[in-house]
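Retry 2 of 3 after timeout on previous attempt. Resubmitting structure tokens to design endpoint.
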């Protein structure tokens, strides 16, 4: 029975952890894009995003990570033989990358607060795809274990995931370009109106 409890809360922890990681980097994107706003909106937005990022990291993301890892330790204590399996070694390697990503997000959060973040919103959008990829790989490993298939269906799932990530990037780029074009089209009209008024 204890094993099922650990597994249930392990999965709940995973959902909370990933929700936090996805939303955190989305907030970083808005935070960086606030640079394009005029004052005082820029300062107000940045202050608000800093607060939201800190709360999200402390109240959702890190507790999600702690619950996931604590429950995983419980699972391994009850089933120590999993530690001899190849799929578990691969999973632990990917989890190490995920933990490094989690810590890197904390570093980015501090840099953003200090106004020293060098990442563009486009780069942050690409970074936000990393946990998606890790999620897909880890879930595939834990479900298929050592029988991870390499057939057409698997490649279809991998291909669809990659296509989804690329589509999101392209759509975001299109929206950014449309916005820039609209701003460029607006500025001569505004200048003309200002001239007429003077
Ligand atoms: C701290 C590192 C982790 C360890 C040691 C670990 C270990 C385990 C173990 C032993 C199981 C039970 C497997 C079974 O009963 O078949 C499990 C289940 C599971 N883990 Fe993890 N896990 C870790 C992190 C993660 C992460 C980061 C994710 C998500 C990306 C994840 C997703 C899952 C899922 C979805 C299951 C349920 C699989 C099923 O019941 O078929 N785990 N984990």
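Retry 2 succeeded. Sequence:
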């Amino acid at each position: 029975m204890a094993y099922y409890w650990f597994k249930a809360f392990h999965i709940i922890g995973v959902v909370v952890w990933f929700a936090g990681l996805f939303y955190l980097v989305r907030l970083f994107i808005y935070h960086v894009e606030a640079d394009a706003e005029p004052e005082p909106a820029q300062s107000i937005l940045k202050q608000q995003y800093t607060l939201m990022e800190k709360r999200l990291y402390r109240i959702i993301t890190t507790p999600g990570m702690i619950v996931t890892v604590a429950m995983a330790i419980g699972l391994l204590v009850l089933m120590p033989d999993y530690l001899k399996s190849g799929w578990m070694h691969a999973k632990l390697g990917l989890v190490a990358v995920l933990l490094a990503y989690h810590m890197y997000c904390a570093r980015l959060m501090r840099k953003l607060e200090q106004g020293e973040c060098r990442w563009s919103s486009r780069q942050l959008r690409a970074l936000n795809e990393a946990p998606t990829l890790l999620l897909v790989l880890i879930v595939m490993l834990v479900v298929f274990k050592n029988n991870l298939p390499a057939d057409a269906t698997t490649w279809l799932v991998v291909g669809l995931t990659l296509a989804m990530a690329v589509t999101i990037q392209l759509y975001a780029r299109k929206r950014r370009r449309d916005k820039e074009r609209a701003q460029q089209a607006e500025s001569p009209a505004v200048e003309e109106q200002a001239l007429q008024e003077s």
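Attempt log closed. The CA atoms of residues 83 and 89 lie 7 Å apart.
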